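Structure (tokenized):
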């Protein structure tokens, strides 16, 4: 396996045409994954986005105004940030549990557990979205709030 010891970049690559971040966001594609910074999809560019799936890997990449525009575009399926980038939080939890118990899982066990949790969450959010005719973001947040409410109720914190 080759190991890169210096930082590499595509900036200045002679075989490619340079484009701006704004151009990148509106370039036709199947899956758009805003993954670096928040508030990149705005009211100014939401109507110009040309993807089938918007997978929000960054925290809050879509502004509330842009979200309203995207809700009127059924041709774009949105995987909201709270679901799309949940894997890192889940695996951090796995690490915490393993450290507490001094019992460590293999990489394949971690991936399997992660897949089952994320797949279950996705199906539940999608079903709630379809059943109650909610945008995926609202369904994801609603499900999360319901789970917190139920956990607090079970602990006697709510009547």
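Design, position by position:
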């Amino acid at each position: 396996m080759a190991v890169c010891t210096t930082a590499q970049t595509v900036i200045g690559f002679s075989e490619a045409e340079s484009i701006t971040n704004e151009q990148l966001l509106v370039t036709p594609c199947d899956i758009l994954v805003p993954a670096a910074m928040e508030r990149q999809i705005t009211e100014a560019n939401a109507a110009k986005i040309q993807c089938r799936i918007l997978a929000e890997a960054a925290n809050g990449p879509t502004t509330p105004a842009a979200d309203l525009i995207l809700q009127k575009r059924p041709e774009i399926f949105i995987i909201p940030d709270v679901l799309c980038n949940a894997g890192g939080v889940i695996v951090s939890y796995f690490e915490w549990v393993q450290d507490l118990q001094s019992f460590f899982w293999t990489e394949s066990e971690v991936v399997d557990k992660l897949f089952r949790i994320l797949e279950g969450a996705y199906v539940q959010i999608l079903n709630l979205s379809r059943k109650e005719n909610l945008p995926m973001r609202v369904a994801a947040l609603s499900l999360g709030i319901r789970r917190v409410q139920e956990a607090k109720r079970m602990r006697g914190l709510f009547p």
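Reviewer-requested clarification: The first strand starts at residue 31 and ends at 32. The CA atoms of residues 42 and 66 lie 5 Å apart.
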